[in-house]
Request: fold
Amino acid sequence: MNTVQLRNVYIWFLPLAVGLALLVSYIPMLDEVAGFPPAFYAMLLGGGVIAYRALLAVLDTHRLTAGTLVVITMAGCAYLGFYKAAALVALMMLVGELLEEITLYRTRQSFEELLALVPEEASVWRDGSWMRVSTSELAPGDRVLVRPGERIPADGTVTRGKASISEAALTGEPMPQDKAAGSQVYQGTVAEFGSIEMTVAKTGEETTMGRIIASVLDAQETKGPMQRLADRIAGYFTPIILGTAAVTWLFTDDLVRTMTVLVIACPCALVLATPTAVVASVGNVAKRGVLVKGGRAMEALSRVNLVCFDKTGTLTEGKPVLKQIKSFGSMTEAELLCCVEGAERYSEHPIGLAIREYAEERELRIAEEPRDFKQEIGMGVSAVVSGKRVRVGNERLVEQWTGSAADAEAAVQFLAEHQHETALLIIVEEELAGGLIIGDQVRDEADQALAHIRKLGVSRIVLLTGDSEGAAASLQRELKLDDVHTRLLPHDKLAVIRRYQREGYVVAMVGEGINDAPALAAADVGIAMGAAGTDLAIQSSQVALMGDRLEKLPEVMRISRSTMFIVRQNIWIFAVAFNVIGILLAASGWIDPVMGAAIHNVASLFVVMNSARLIRKKAGFSV
Reply:
């Protein structure tokens, strides 16, 4: 039996077995089995494992934990013949650990999506011809051909040809990037249009994609596990209780009274304090379409005071939209849009799709089919629309344009005014007719969601993006972001996260792409936009907004804060305060072991009832 199977037996089988043995002990005809009551075997089964784990914990931490006091209590009860009491204590400890385990949904890392981005084969120039070889056989200096629709097999430099490369998997940038001789290209990106020849510079683990995998693994391995809150309290609580029991025995010489002190002080309520609250709150947010992977994530989320957002697909919709159309001549904007829609009708570029959608929404479309459509890589498109040659493109279009000096000056001025945005020119019959501004649509709920996050005590909201400064600056103004970091590759985002952590911030990272995975894993809380997010992003995170709605983030943050408030109530009121009062009564002889057990169980019951309030906790934004 392997380690995982042994752990499953411990977590799931032991509580069931101990509970059944306790039930059997109440059947009169089965009050003794092989000379001992069934409760004795229940005590041995549950108590033996708890004692073993408590010993390992003491040796590992050199501190007394909650389990230490439980072991001493069970031993004392067994010595006095109170087997049922000892078994009950063991059962409550095991149930507490079971509840905690139920909250740990964290999925193991899976890199299938990353591996799918790396092509299995590549076209390499060898022995005077192009040959298909395994990507793993590539070496720096190899000459590689990438055709339209193929993925780049390694990091390198373009030596020949032109192509529009989608780098969304690495940078989050929704617009394909134009590449020509001298441009850098990266493994896993896609040549959407055009073909290129490249020289390989890096392969395997040395590529940007390989570094993403290594960064995710390193970030998760270097994050130490959160020490259980119950054990932190028990580090102080246990010695005090043992001292109180020793003083009671010393002054009264009454072992039963001493054991009553230990029965009351047994930290079952302390053990239940955190997992019951977490189970209730995790179930609550799950009904709202949010997956929180365990108590560590819930506690960390409650302490977040800085939130970093990716841009594309997180604060924005993640697809280009036509934001503005401007006429420079006699044509109206409606007439201009009809011409542009015709020119872009057969374009497969995301910008062409955005223009067509904009025109369709306004029911502006020329019935006549365009002729002589051409897609010019790195510049734009052209077509004959209603008998006129229409060209739509970027600043490179100006270089091949033979328009008038006045038109050329107007074009340069328009491009300069929008140098930080995606600006396109519209040329009809060699005359400058107008211009277009393409952008990424901000989510409708983004502004309100960020406002509510600030109300919850988050002091800084930061943008981390692979986009240009202009696109980020526009978003910063619109959403009033505190700081912006642009043109970031995945390892750059990771570095920014760690810098903020060194400054003392508890950092949450919100993202949805493969390029966000290292930062999601390194942040104190990684939050994936689930519906839009990639599998790797979701599995690198501790929280997933499965409904892909940003307003869910302040909701789950508010519930996380309520959860930790209730955990503190459970610990200090129902675990510590109840125990202190009960211990004083037991030490003075006011109650016997039966009453002590009753007080002990009432405290545990109150913990469960208090935590149950989180099941129906509302996530309104009033704070």
About this structure: Residues 552-587 form the longest helix (36 residues). The first strand starts at residue 121 and ends at 126. Residues 1-119 form one domain. The chain has four domains: 1-119, 139-202, 205-303+548-622, 317-441.
